[in-house]
Design a protein that fits this description.
Layout (H helix, E strand, L loop, with lengths): L2 H7 L3 H7 L2 H13 L4 H8 L5 E6 L5 H16 L3 E6 L5 H4 L12 E5 L5 E6 L3 H9 L2 H12 L4 H17 L6
Parallel strand pairs: 1-2
Antiparallel strand pairs: 1-3, 3-4
Helix pairs in contact: 3-5, 5-9
Protein name: Thioredoxin family protein
Organism: Thermosediminibacter oceani (strain ATCC BAA-1034 / DSM 16646 / JW/IW-1228P)
Pfam family, one: Thioredoxin_9
């Protein structure tokens, strides 16, 4: 299935929240309210001059979706050239095979697309910083990092990974992930 077709099947953030249980909706709203982005990050968001679409695979019950999806919402509000659509993981597992992390399709998966629906790169499940901590294998660091991440303390890091994909597309032009 083409990226454009998938994107057009997706729903908007508000509809996604409306379909969520009240408990999860409150968690998304709290994470959104707690987002704090640095001036440097805000400037990077404002400097985006090309249309960016993001196809997101997410579920309302997923703790990683709860902390990362509001960051994308905030970025899209800051820069109107960024838009996104959300699909569930269920029913799209075969498509998500390409974006596996640790051997499995994961959520959230954010696929960044240019105006022509060409892939620029993808963010899968957690920020690279967390993947690096996990790879080192030191359990106390993993436990602390996971707890802080799920408390919404890494919104700046998530935004940085998103922006790196968007900005990298201009520099590399090869859709590196």
């Amino acid at each position: 299935m083409l990226m454009r077709e998938l994107y057009e099947k997706g729903i908007k953030y508000n509809e996604f929240l409306e379909e969520a249980d009240q408990k999860y909706r409150r968690e998304f709203e709290k994470c959104y309210e707690d987002i704090k982005l640095s001036e440097k990050t805000l400037e990077r968001i404002e400097k985006i001059t090309e249309k960016i679409r993001v196809l997101v695979f997410a579920e309302p019950w997923c703790p990683d979706c709860i902390v990362s999806l509001p960051v994308l919402k905030k970025i899209a509000e800051i820069n109107g050239l960024i838009d996104f659509a959300i699909l569930p993981r269920e029913g799209y597992e075969d498509f998500l095979e390409k974006y596996k992390y640790e051997g499995k399709p994961r959520i959230p998966t954010f696929i960044f697309l240019n105006e022509k629906y060409e892939e620029l790169g993808a963010f899968v499940e957690i920020p690279q910083m967390l993947k690096d901590i996990y790879a080192r294998g030191y359990q106390p660091d993993i436990i602390v990092a996971r707890r802080e991440y799920r408390q919404g303390k890494y919104s700046e890091v998530i935004a940085g990974d998103f922006l790196q994909i968007i900005e990298g597309s201009k520099k590399a032009g090869d859709g590196e992930r």
